[in-house]
Amino acid sequence: MTHRVLVIDDDPLFLAMAEDLLISRGVRHVTGLATGADGLAKIKNAPDLFDLILLDLNMPGLDGVNVLRALADLHYSGAVAIVSSEAGEVISSVRMVGEMIGIRIAGALSKPLRAAELDALIRAVPETRRAQALRAVSRADLIAILDTDRLVPVYQPQISLKDMRVSGAEALLRLRAPDSSLVSGAGYLLAAETHGLITPLTIRIFEAVLDDLLAWRRAGVPTGASVNISPASLEERDLPDALSSRVRAAGLKASDITLEVTENRLLDFGADTLEVLSRLRIAGFRLSVDDFGTGATSIDQLRRFPFTELKVDKAFVQGAENDAFAHETLTACVRLASLQGLRTVAEGIETPADLKRVQTFGLDVAQGYLISRPLSCDDFLAWMGRQPSESLRARVA
Ligand code: C2E
Ligand code: MG
Ligand code: MG
């Protein structure tokens, strides 16, 4: 059964209908994007995230055939279903192109989508190897591990681009392996989303972050932290109280915490999501849109919802010196953010050139391997003790 589907189609009505239909057929993660370029940026970031792409053939800009070619270049490993109202022979020649360049074509769907055709398709498409491996974590495994302290946050420092001072740290989930090393928590995240346990996992990490913030304060480091929240948790109306009460019990302030909304499906911003976001803001939390530019958050949503921070996706940051599209995206992000009074964060800063660029564009905060890899709670304190601002200032001077 297919679990993650990306829909690329320039028709907003089709996107909305496809999303509803896919979710009603039991697909848990649906992302809809309006252009081939957006779809490719998403796949470039995560070539094996999706099991299936529904690809429209007729789009302005890059058409479906251009996108197939680029997918092959990116070594996309999932399947593609062609969606088109073109005649049968057009579809079959495109199908052949795909197969000749090594893309697995799972089938063709005509517009409008029909539930029975879609059902047959998503049943037939196997999950990618990675997804199968990730799913090896059963519900029971997950419940068992939630009771231990083996799921821990690591922290990636963020620096203010004005003065190179540390302005915060993003908490990222890791699994403590039996030899005490910290390994990727991606499998547990996907499993938690699949088994409907993402909110208990989020709360577990949130509690661990509060403990770590208290430890930092005892050591004289009053830094705040960002915590990632999956969209599914934003539909749970008791989330604001669950988080606020824990912050209060710890004697910390909600404004010490930024909640990053990671969008892995179209945020529909129904009444529940909007209520939860509003109440989180009222409670004093800061709210960040993560991976902006490749995800599904629209400019309109940016205007209407109570975000405080815009986190530009690394696709527009890394090695993008000569990339006109990345250039325009960064410019637009900074303008939009200033109109809305949002703080801008650039993620994925890997080189001094990346850092210089985002500084020149006027972004507020930077995060990435150049500044530091994600660090355990203790290592973060040790890193802070080594006066990182001084050496960073020297490095970009
Ligand atoms: P994200 O929130 O966009 O986090 C940034 C990811 O980029 C992290 O991967 C980080 O380690 C990586 N990264 C940081 N600097 C660089 C760099 O300079 N270059 C490159 N190429 N990558 C960099 P990680 O830790 O594997 O997390 C992946 C995603 O998993 C996160 O993306 C976030 O969406 C999700 N995630 C992580 N922890 C949590 C969590 O506690 N809860 C939820 N709901 N999601 C989480
Ligand atoms: Mg994040
Ligand atoms: Mg991000």
Walk me through this protein's architecture:
The protein is of the alpha/beta class and 397 residues long. Helix content is 44%, strand content 20%. It folds into 2 domains: 4-127, Response regulator (Rossmann fold); 132-395, EAL domain (TIM Barrel, Alpha-Beta Barrel). The protein has an 8-stranded mixed barrel, surrounded by 5 helices. It has a 5-stranded parallel β-sheet with strand order 2-1-3-4-5, sandwiched between helices. Helix 2 (36-45) runs parallel beside helix 3 (64-73), helix 9 (198-218) runs parallel beside helix 10 and helix 10 (239-250) runs parallel beside helix 11 (271-282). The longest helix has 21 residues, at 198-218. The N and C termini lie far apart (53 Å). The model has no long low-confidence stretch (mean pLDDT 89). It binds ligand C2E and magnesium ion (2 copies). Residues 290-291, 311, 347 line the site of one magnesium ion. The site of one magnesium ion has 5 residues, from loops.
- Oligomeric state of the chains present here: single chain
Question: What is the CA-CA span between the terminal residues?
Answer: 53 Å
Bound molecules: ligand C2E, magnesium ion
SSE string: EHEHEHEHEHHHEEEHHEHEHEHEHEHEHH
> Do you know the CATH architecture of the largest domain?
Alpha-Beta Barrel
Q: Determine the CATH topology of the largest domain.
A: TIM Barrel
Low-pLDDT residue intervals, each spanning 5 or more residues: none
**Structural class, from secondary structure content?**
alpha/beta
Mean pLDDT value = 89
The DSSP helix count reads: 16
Number of strands: 14
Strand order of the largest sheet: 6-7-9-10-11-12-13-14
Q: How many structural domains?
A: 2
Annotated CATH homologous superfamily of the largest domain: EAL domain
| Radius of gyration over C-alpha positions, nearest whole angstrom | 22 Å
Overall outline:
globular
Helical amount among residues, as a percent range?
Answer: 40-55%
Q: What does the largest sheet look like?
A: 8 strands, mixed, barrel
Percent range for β-strand residues:
15-25%
